[in-house]
Design goal:
The structure is a single chain. By secondary structure, the protein is of the alpha+beta class. The chain has one domain (8-140): START domain (Alpha-D-Glucose-1,6-Bisphosphate, Chain A, domain 4, 2-Layer Sandwich). 27% of the residues lie in helices and 38% in strands. The protein contains 3 helices and 7 strands. A 7-stranded antiparallel beta sheet has the order 1-7-6-5-4-3-2. Strand 6 and strand 7 form a beta hairpin.
């Protein structure tokens, strides 16, 4: 039996090459610098086998250090510089699509929603993750 998940889209454009933006989503050496949902949360470690069938594990720690958790899953499709699809270990499929528009890299995240938090909360959290990527990319171009 296939579980259907409600989905939502988040889109953001970055003033950075598509190849770099793509690699920031896949490579652990980039993920540890930006993949957190703001409010002082940090990413103390990341592991990523960035190929179809490869696994990822991204650690999150609260600002006070009292809470932590791992975000884990499997890459179900990695098409260089255009698409990364993954399944979160709770069963939710998600995808990132990359394109170039007007000299910028456009990323569209198709997010399957979980049922614990509201869609608004999830859009906010993932929106903060994407904003954090924007700050990281801006810092690389200074």
């Amino acid at each position: 039996m296939t579980t259907q998940f409600k989905t939502t889209l988040l889109t953001r454009s970055f003033d950075a090459p598509r190849e770099l933006v793509f690699e920031c989503w896949l490579k652990a050496e980039h993920l540890v610098h930006w993949h957190s949902a703001g409010d002082g949360w940090t990413t103390p470690y990341a592991e990523s086998d960035g190929r179809t069938g490869g696994r990822f594990k991204i650690g999150y720690a609260s600002p006070d250090g009292k809470m932590s958790f791992d975000f884990t899953g499997t890459y179900t499709e990695v098409t260089p510089y255009s698409r990364i699809a993954f399944q979160i270990d709770d069963g939710r499929p998600c995808a990132l699509d990359f394109s170039t528009e007007g000299g910028q890299t456009k990323v569209t995240l198709t997010l399957s929603l979980e049922t614990t938090h509201s869609e608004e909360q999830q859009r906010h959290g993932w929106g903060e993750i994407i904003k954090s990527l924007g700050r990281y990319l801006e810092g690389m171009h200074k």
